[in-house]
Fold this protein.
Amino acid sequence: MTRPKDEPVGFTVMGILGMAGGIPAVAEKTGRTVQTVSKWDRRIPAKYARDIAIMAGLPLEIVRPDMVRASEK
C-alpha cells in the first residue's frame, strides 16, 4: 500500500497538532473552531500548513510533503 502524497511523513496529523500546542491552540491560531480542527485526521489543509509547521517546530516537508514537492517543480 502506498502512502498518499499529502500525508505527513513519520507523524500522524494528531501528533503534529499536539506538537503545535494542541487542537485548541491550533484552532485559535488558524481562526477555525475546535470541532473543525479535530476533523483534520487525514491531512492538514494547505492554507494552514505553514503556520502549523512553525507552531510544531517541524519543517513543512514533514507536515505537507506535497506542498514542498509542488514548489520544487
Notes: The helical segments are 13-19, 23-30, 34-38, 46-56, 60-63, 65-72. The mean pLDDT is 87. Residues 46-56 form the longest helix (11 residues).
